[in-house]
Amino acid sequence: MTEGRTGTESLLDRSRKVMPGGVNSPVRSFASVGSEPFFAQKGEGPWIWDTEGNRYLDYVLSWGPLILGHAHPAVVEALEAQLSRGTSYGLATEGEAELAERLVRLVPGIEMVRLVNSGTEATMSALRLARAATGRDRVLKFTGCFHGHADPFLVAAGSGVATLGLPNSPGVPEGAVETTALLPFNDLDQVEELFRESGDQFAAVFLEPVMGNAGLIPPEPGFLEGLGEITERHGALLVFDEVMTGFRVSLGGAQAHYGVTPDLTALGKVIGGGLPVGAFGGRRDLMERMAPTGPVYQAGTLSGNPLATAAGNAQLRWLEENDPYADLDAYASKLVEGTVAALRQEGLPATGTHRGSMWGIYFREEPVRSFEEAKEADTEAFGRFHRALLKRGIFFAPSPFEAGFLSVVHGAEELEITLSAVREAAAEAA
Ligand code: KE4
User: Fold this and answer.
1) Which one of 8, 93, 333, 357 has the fewest beta carbons within 10 angstroms of its own beta carbon?
2) 213 CB under 6 A from ligand 1?
3) Considering only CA atoms, which of 248, 309, 299, 249 is closest in space to residue 102?
4) DSSP for 342-396, written as a single string
5) Which residue's C-alpha comes closest to atom 21 of ligand 1?
6) What is the average per-residue pLDDT within 278-300?
7) Do residues 316 and 271 make contact, with C-beta atoms less than 8 angstroms apart?
């Protein structure tokens, strides 16, 4: 296991002196799997190397963006072509129009879109728009869903908040979250009851249509359809946070896979090809309320950045032209089945599932339908398994509350290497 040593002082010690935890995003600290983090040196295809020269099969893939793997030629060529023309203009560019047209073409619920720089900006702006369009303040989210770190969403969120046990982050004023209601995922009756009492106060229901920030929790049959019906009946908007599921569950995201079209959609990750991009879009009548065509303010120095749109367009163009989703789904299915079987073989409780190229494993017998159930899984065993895999050159997400990812360059050989290491690591973790 690397300490990222360079000279006498480790890279981690150096970084910890000048950055909280030595990282720029908490989940990179590996705190929840009891390891010290490694530092990335380079990535190539499905592989990532640390600064000590160890290489790992990468199932984190920058937390989702790298669906073509690291340094895919299509993305690298697009970036190289743009670099010589400059890195930012602060003006509109054709690359933004091309990316926006692509999102409108591929995502069922998007008629018009605004590009931003992160998923957090996308969901924060979508919430502001939903509140402006309805004249209402309240928003319903589901425990375990993570929508980035904007104040209104930092209540019992998933991902880093859940991992670090920060159900209500300090610094978030009561006023910012008093209009945020929380219910368990997959419980339509409780949504029905809440809206029966106060549905006319809600601007929106916000959710990850497939939860990827509590492991992987798919919607129960009828859940998404039911939310669409309830929101429509009460004049609230349905907002899908597809920052993670977008272009991962299918080419049109979870909304295309399940056939449920939200009023607004937040995107990120894959659409930037590894560069910082987010987007929010939806019904034209809603989006036209955004400045400068309407009064709802939102802005960003680097929004639609030409490097980011070059990488995003190259990645999405490749996905459109090659449609890898059947292969991704097949790999995910074999990976999850093989991992669950190996863990059970060693007497460990295990369950898992996948949707498209996202997958999740839990150390518990029964399938997981909510964050509350996800938290009942054995996180200690997860930590032992994660460390045992890392020693064998397999990098799974360093948290039981994150989804795993795949790329189009994870092939049969990588699957065999992975399952062989999984069987050994399961024996070690038992
Ligand atoms: P960003 O601001 O990190 O680009 O996106 C926030 C966000 C919004 N919505 C969903 C569904 C998300 O999953 C995310 C961010 N996901 C985490 C991983 N679970 C990012 C990794 C990290 O926090 O370092």
Assistant:
1) 8
2) yes
3) 309
4) HHHHTT---EEEEETTEEEEESSSSPP-SHHHHTTS-HHHHHHHHHHHHHTTEE-
5) 63
6) 98
7) yes
CATH 3.90.1150.10 in the chain: give the residue spans.
Answer: 6-71+324-429
Return the number of other C-beta atoms located less than 10 Å from residue 378's C-beta.
17
The pLDDT of residue 175: 82
Q: Residue 38: what pLDDT?
A: 96
Pocket-testing residue among 23, 59, 66, 120, ligand 1, by greatest number of atoms within 8 A of Cβ: 120
Whether pLDDT at 6 is above 60: no
- Give pLDDT, residue 212: 98
Class of domain 6-71+324-429: alpha beta
Q: Which residue's CA is minimally distant from atom 14 of ligand 1? A: 148
> For residue 243, what are the contacts with CB-CB under 8 A and spacing of at least 6?
64, 119, 122, 123, 147, 148, 266, 267, 268, 269, 278
Write out pLDDT tens, residues 46-101.
999 999 999 999 999 999 999 999 999 999 999 999 999 999 999 999 999 999 99
| Band (158; pLDDT cuts 50, 70, 90) | low
160: Cβ below 6 Å to ligand 1? yes
| Sheet bearing 351-355, strands edge to edge | 351-355, 358-362, 404-405
For residue 163, is pLDDT > 90?
Answer: no
**Mean of pLDDT over the chain:** 94
Residue whose CA lies nearest to ligand 1 atom number 9 = 147
Helix or strand or coil: residue 204? strand
Residue 8, pLDDT score: 60
Class of domain 73-322: alpha beta
**199, 140 Cβ separation under 8 angstroms:** no
Burial class (CB in 10 A: 0-12, 13-18, 19+), 52: middle
Mean pLDDT of 162-182: 74
Any ligand 1 atom below 6 A from CB of 244: yes
Express each pLDDT in 54-64 by its tens digit. Answer: 999 999 999 99
Residues of the chain with CATH 3.40.640.10: 73-322
Identify whether the C-beta of residue 39 lies closer than 8 Å to the C-beta of residue 11. yes
Atom of ligand 1 nearest to the CA of 245: 11
